[in-house]
Amino acid sequence: MKNILALVIFTILFSCIDNSDLMPYDKDQKGAEINIKGYSKPDIIQMRMNGNPIIINGNNSYTDKIETKINFVLDKNETNELGIYNNQTGNQIAKYNINYNNIDDYKNLYFFNLPDIFLQTYVVKPQVNLGRVGFEFIFPNLGEFSGSSLESVKGVLRKQNGAILAEFNNIGKKDFTEVKIYTFFSATEPVYLELYKPGTTEPYMGSNIIKVKIKQDIGANLIVLQEKMINGTFEVKGEIDVVDYL
């Protein structure tokens, strides 16, 4: 009889428990961490998470080298906005919508902010021995004016007389190429980068060779290629050297 009574009491108590209380309270949450490495010059910038300034070393705005780590909790059905702003004008430079499903895409966030250009990449100046020249390239707006669907192009760097100095198999939108190094030969003679479809000798757009005039400086050169429309004519320029800002 005692055993039957105990079983009845246990059954009543169990039936009074809300099933939701048996589930983990944080099943719809996830811990998130974002490692940020950036650079901005000359602009002073501010980063905000959901509108709130991110403090780095006691400062809510920053310039030059910028490094920090953000830790927070993500709810399954919410989106967190990480924004980068020009601190003087208040203009938004970049925005990242971070949620429960895409947080792995933002574990490492790299950027490089220069006048009139924002690169979503981390820049490291390569070591180039004395008397040598090193080149790296990136092409962030590939396809903007040409309409090309390519994600990268092949580059052939030549002297004025046509001699090949270096070849770059994949100049892409997101990251600088590996450095290619050669012996410095002139302080005044420019070099030319010809751009082709990957793995071919066919210009990446049109039928004429796309040739970009580039100033070579002794040491490292980190060149940003840009498609431009100048007086109605499509051109590619390589006038920005990130090394000038480092």
UniProtKB/TrEMBL annotation:
This is DUF3823 domain-containing protein. It comes from the Bacteria.
